Amino acid sequence: MSQLAVVEDTTGQTEAARILRAAWAVLERSHFRSLKIRQVLTASGTSASTFYRSFPSKSHLLLALLEDETARGDRRLARWIAEADTAEGRLRAWLTFNIRTIYRPELAERARLFLDSGLLEELPEDVHRLYDVTGKRLVEVIRGGMAEQVFRAGDPVADAAMVRHLVHGLLSDGLNGRLDVPEEQVLHTAFDFVLRALRPTSGTRESRTLLALP
Questions:
Q1: Domains of the chain, with CATH numbers?
Q2: Among 13, 143, 151, 159, which is most exposed with the fewest C-beta within 10 angstroms?
Q3: Is 177 left (phi over 0), alpha (psi -120 to 50) or beta?
Q4: pLDDT at site 81
């Protein structure tokens, strides 16, 4: 059960919601460069004991913020994917949604916040669960492409994992200033690479079927 769900099952619901709203306000004022519990306490008008009743540590607060951010991002991603009318278009939508994080300052600032090493060390399972949310969307995209015979038959979960590793590397390099390549070039190269990996290869039954289609 998520941190927020635990809070909502108790009488601390209003307290937790107020603290989260205050935390977002503190982050926005600092352009997502700083989040100190003292600042959150002041902004929310709550005591330390009230804070720790809802969030046992700063990492738990970050996790709740990440959960909130992930839920909103997933809704946007779902709309992007739904607007595409082909399997290839849905794949490109997924890649675009993720890669643009590097090149949009407001998105990059938020993403860097959740690269906090303490968060991953203290709550690794919860963090990976949230990271898997966009990954599940990619699995759906690849599985749909396989069903339409646009992508070769295979394991959509394993294929999605490989694509996610590629994108994770791009995000890591980009957010840490190690990717000096224009957005369109990165997107084009990544899309072309992934598409070539997923498309049926010459001589396979899938490719022969596609060639036979009118």
A1: 12-55 (1.10.10), 58-198 (1.10.357.10)
A2: 13
A3: left
A4: 98
